[in-house]
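Task: sequence design from structure.
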């Protein structure tokens, strides 16, 4: 019996050691990968960002604001910290984490999108795995644990949090051993995608109600005030979604009223591209809410011209 217990203890100790080693390799590999879910977080935690112009938003933003062009035309150092599929609360979370590790920017571009920025995201578990490599950063994890269903077992039991995420485990191994898998790569938070037009969301007959959460509006207001107190410039940009998408929402005017009120009360310039020429050309979109690579280039050229006219970088 004693021998059996001894063998069991040895087996469990070896299993724990193996789990610790695999956890380390996967986590370290993801921490240096260029995969979209991790690339921006990696640059933040490595203190690798020193941006004059910081761009905030969600998925429309990381594939719509071309940092190559912004740097070239505005003669600045830009970085796109957009977080995929999340409303402003998580955009602010990423910004606050950025500020713990990186210096303040001179100008923040906040992308305003009708479909999502004023949402709540409470209990939203989408892409919870993006936080796994940074599981020991309490200031970050404590704020997302409830929404992303991250438990004490995820934090302290080796490999437990990666269960069910085979692709991420494989990507971590590839990256750690020098053969990183890149899902298109990111350039300072931007990735243009040469997708063709896909309009399935426009075929739905019913109308939707765009989120217009009052707490989120208040959160943006507090964020703007804090930035102004630090001497950080700010500009709002209403994104050029495909024109038929706006027709799918029953409360566009109410959401835009929230945008305009925030801009007016805080004396923030707002660049509105919601009826720009680009909005009527489906060849510039991958879907009604996201520009493709060609569309992002045209939009960013126009944006840079308008930002230069405002003189915010002088």
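Answer:
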């Amino acid at each position: 019996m004693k021998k059996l217990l001894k063998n069991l203890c040895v087996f469990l100790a070896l299993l724990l050691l193996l789990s610790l080693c695999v956890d380390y390799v996967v986590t370290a590999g993801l921490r240096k990968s260029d995969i979209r879910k991790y690339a921006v977080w990696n640059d933040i935690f490595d203190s690798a960002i020193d941006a004059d112009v910081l761009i905030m938003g969600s998925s429309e933003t990381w594939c719509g604001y071309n940092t190559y062009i912004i740097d070239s035309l505005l003669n600045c150092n830009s970085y796109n910290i957009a977080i995929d599929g999340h409303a402003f609360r998580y955009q602010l979370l990423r910004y606050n984490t950025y500020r713990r590790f990186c210096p303040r920017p001179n100008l923040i571009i906040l992308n305003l999108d009708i479909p999502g920025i004023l949402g709540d995201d409470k209990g939203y578990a989408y892409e919870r795995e993006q936080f796994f490599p940074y599981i020991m950063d309490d200031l970050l994890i404590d704020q997302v644990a409830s929404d992303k269903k991250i438990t004490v077992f995820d934090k302290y039991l080796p490999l437990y949090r990666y269960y069910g995420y085979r692709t991420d485990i494989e990507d971590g191994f590839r990256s750690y051993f020098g053969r990183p898998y890149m899902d298109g790569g990111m350039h300072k938070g931007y990735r243009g995608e040469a997708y063709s037009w896909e309009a399935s969301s426009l075929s739905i007959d019913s109308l939707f109600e765009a989120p217009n959460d009052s707490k989120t509006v208040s959160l943006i207001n507090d964020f703007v005030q804090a930035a102004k107190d630090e001497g950080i410039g700010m500009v709002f940009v209403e994104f050029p979604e495909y024109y038929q998408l706006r027709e799918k929402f029953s409360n566009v005017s109410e959401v835009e009223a929230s945008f305009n009120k925030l801009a007016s009360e805080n004396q923030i310039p707002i660049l509105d591209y919601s009826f720009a020429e680009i909005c009527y050309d489906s060849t510039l979109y991958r879907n009604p809410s996201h520009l493709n690579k060609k569309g992002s280039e045209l939009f960013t050229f126009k944006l840079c011209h308008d930002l230069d006219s405002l003189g915010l970088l002088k």
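The longest strand covers residues 107-112.
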